Amino acid sequence: MNNMIGIFIGRREPDTYQYVSTTDTIDPTGSIDYIAIEAAINGRKVALTDEEKLFAARLLDSRGVGCASIGKLVGATPERIARWKAAGWVLAAPEGVAA
User: Among candidates 28, 29, 94, 83, which has minimal Cα distance to 61?
Assistant: First the structure.
């Protein structure tokens, strides 16, 4: 029996832990913390930046997770997740700032 504690969304057996990266801890620009994202998508409450939330949401969506579940895991509303998805997983520029 596998003793991992991670839970894959939609499954009851605690045998599948969600991994983000097996080699890197941050992205090349240093703006995305893969360790924080991994903790969040496995149900731990961590503070994520908007870039990290978007990265996690895109990853979870690619694994078949719905907007409501994604929102709970990353700390965003399902509507926000749906907007990001509709926009092609790109963060909108803040008001008054050119993209």
Answer: 83
